[in-house]
Design a protein that fits this description.
Layout (H helix, E strand, L loop, with lengths): L5 H13 L3 H10 L5 H4 L7 H9 L1 H14 L5 H15 L2 H13 L8 H4 L22 E2 L2 H7 L5 E10 L3 E2 L5 E8 L4 E7 L1 H6 L5 E5 L2 E3 L2 E4 L4 E5 L6 H11 L8 H7 L5 E10 L3 E3 L8 E10 L2 E8 L14 E12 L2 E14 L12
Parallel strand pairs: 1-2, 5-8, 13-15
Antiparallel strand pairs: 2-4, 2-6, 3-4, 4-5, 6-9, 7-8, 10-12, 10-14, 11-12, 12-13, 14-15
InterPro entries: NA-bd_OB-fold (IPR012340)
Length: about 375
């Protein structure tokens, strides 16, 4: 079996993406599972193939593009003739099959199976009794996160992964509670939307869990009331997937100067550090798509000779109680906004505010 050339795959992927219409190209970006929004925004067709391969890796990007082309759908001869040979090479690699067998052997035994019996040559596995977690006596089928992102998930399937990052508890417009998890295994990372306060209390960052009875709704894989979450032995996760899982929950928020925010108008979240110079009272304002008025509160932040207006919305207005005029604060996950040629900052659902402690310098004398 000949080795897949990354250079050839990037060239052919470029041709495939060039063959998409504008609408298909937009849908292609929307269909990419786990692909960070910051990489989707304003990416040209020339840049996108390299970013896709860099994010998923060579072989995983091939399978992901196979799934995406089916979902768009885009099945013309050009796409199929270019894509199919790569897919066949990936799916027929014997080392992939051996890796999958090894992974299954290393998994801890399910309830109702006998580890000792598995070690006896020619012994048959003990049949698992029928439980609420099984259908017709069959255990849920364990799926890697990469396979989940490639083909979706059924309620009879489960994933096992490490919770790398957990968001704060959020409230929807209909007053239900939810939060997000960045979960990773040895194959990929995924963002899970989890419903309910109980799960938020029980699930801990850094621990590994089995997630059963998941559902998929649009872009989100969901853990809901009927799902089952149980802690399991630690899952070893490559560093690259840990970083991806973190970014899925908390997007990149580079520390940026007020001057650069005003001049470059970044489209992603930013962090900024400055001195609070003025704080305004809470206002009730009418916003689109909401029946009730929303809390709004603003303050001024200065940095050297630059000053910018910061507006906190809804729940984020509560963070202002930690502010005080004349002190330095770090604002993370802020969204730049431009209105009538004036740039300001808005809060996001990820916004954090931290007081910056000034460090005194001790004078050192030499004898």
């Amino acid at each position: 079996m000949s080795k897949i050339s990354e250079e050839d795959w990037k060239r052919d992927l470029t041709i495939i993406l060039e063959d998409l219409s504008s609408a298909q190209f937009i849908k292609m970006k929307e269909c990419l599972r786990g692909f960070p929004q910051v990489l989707k925004d304003s990416r040209s067709r020339e840049e996108m193939p390299g970013k896709i391969i860099e994010f998923y890796g060579k072989e995983k990007s091939i399978l992901e593009m196979e799934r995406v082309m089916e979902e768009i759908p885009k099945r013309n001869d050009l796409v199929q003739n270019l894509l199919k040979p790569y897919v066949q090479k990936v799916r027929s690699k014997p080392e992939k099959q051996q890796h999958e067998k090894k992974r299954r052997r290393e998994e801890e035994p399910e309830e109702g199976t006998s580890p000792a019996a598995d070690q006896l040559e020619g012994s048959q596995p003990v049949k698992k009794p029928k439980t609420r977690d099984s259908q017709d006596g069959k255990a849920p089928w364990r799926k890697s996160i990469f396979d989940l992102k490639s083909s979706g998930i059924l309620e009879t399937e489960e994933i096992v992964g490490k919770v790398v990052k957990k968001s704060e508890l959020l409230t929807s417009t209909i007053k239900t509670f939810y939060f997000f998890l960045g979960v990773a295994d040895e194959t990929a990372s995924v963002k899970l939307m989890v419903c309910g306060k109980d799960h938020h209390r029980q699930i801990k960052e850094g621990s590994s869990y089995i997630f059963r009875n998941l559902t998929q709704d649009g872009i989100y894989v969901k853990v809901n009331a009927s799902s089952k979450v149980s802690e399991t032995k630690p899952v070893i996760v490559p560093e690259e997937f840990e970083r991806e899982a973190e970014r899925l929950v908390y997007p990149e928020s580079p520390l940026t100067s007020i001057k650069d925010i005003k001049s470059s108008r970044p489209q992603t979240h930013v962090s900024v550090k400055g001195t609070v110079t003025e704080i305004y009272p809470v206002n009730k304002v009418k916003v689109k798509h909401k029946e009730k008025k929303t809390n709004q509160r603003s303050f001024k932040l200065s940095q050297e000779d630059e000053e910018i207006s910061v507006t906190m919305w809804d729940e984020a207005t509560k963070l202002i109680k930690y502010l005080s005029v004349g002190h330095v604060f770090l604002l993370e996950y802020m969204k730049p906004n431009e209105y009538r040629e004036k740039v300001s900052l808005n809060s996001s659902k990820f916004t954090k505010i931290t007081k910056v402690q000034s460090v005194g310098i001790r004078k050192v004398t030499r004898d």
